[in-house]
Amino acid sequence: MPGPAFVTGGSSGIGLAVAMQLAAKGHDIAIFARDPNKLAAARETILAQSPSVSVHEFQVDVSNRTEITAAVNEAVQSMGAPDYAVASAGIAEPGLFRDQPLATHESHMQVNYFGALYFAHALQGPMRENGGGKLAFLSSVAAFFGIYGYSAYAPTKFALSGLGEVLHLELAEAGISVTVMHPSDTDTPQLAAEKATKPAATAEIGEGGGLFQPEVVAACLIKAMDKNKPWVSTGKAMTLLGAFSSILKPILRRHQRRIIKKHRPE
């Protein structure tokens, strides 16, 4: 019988899509998120599709080390160590560096990086004791190269991708595979919320990566986890960008400068 799957940010977007697809494969699900109403709705959605699995809700702020560690420990005690663990919780608030307060930068790092770090750190022991498992981090194509308007967001994804690369090597001896997902724009509530603060140049730059449905991103991620891939992205263009980002960065900077100049006030 498949072991459980734990997903942070599992109440909506990519996280919910991952939880639903793993539930369809017979895995009991633990979803971790802040909003109790969204958690309850997500649970009903998962059970409507996969009534034979159990779904456990954990209302938690992943940026709070004490809270997420306690929630993970409770989930392990009640369900066992996970076969799949996906750190999908994240925030994104685009804006220019000159306009955003330091608190915005700090909150992004706390949720996007430390939230995933706390989750993985709490799980490594139980997963080791269980003989291994599959761990994934939701990063972004914004970790491939610096994107105008993402000074608060992009560095957190660079950091998260770096963590994933290191853990892919370090945790292999314990039978734990680590995969970093780099999706481009995905049709989620978070992307819709970004529009409120996204500079026009940032929006145009983002159009180059296309728009994906969360179900497509989730399927791509799970397939990569099953193959123990260190990283994956959405679509051929973004995969090539990830593979050759260091070579392509000068070209991408010139492309962005042209767009920025077009949107700069006279």
UniProtKB/TrEMBL annotation:
Enzyme kind, highest EC tier: oxidoreductase
Family matches, as CDD domains: KDSR-like_SDR_c
SUPFAM superfamilies in UniProt: NAD(P)-binding Rossmann-fold domains
Primary residence: endoplasmic reticulum
Ketoreductase domain sequence ranges: 3-186
Subcellular location, record wording: Endoplasmic reticulum
GO biological process: 3-keto-sphinganine metabolic process; sphingolipid biosynthetic process
Keywords attached to this entry: Endoplasmic reticulum, Lipid metabolism, NADP, Oxidoreductase, Sphingolipid metabolism
Cellular component GO terms, alphabetical: membrane
Enzyme Commission (EC) number: 1.1.1.102
Superkingdom of origin organism: Bacteria
Metabolic or biological pathway: Lipid metabolism; sphingolipid metabolism; Sphingolipid metabolism
One of the record's GO molecular function terms: 3-dehydrosphinganine reductase activity
Protein name, UniProt field: 3-dehydrosphinganine reductase
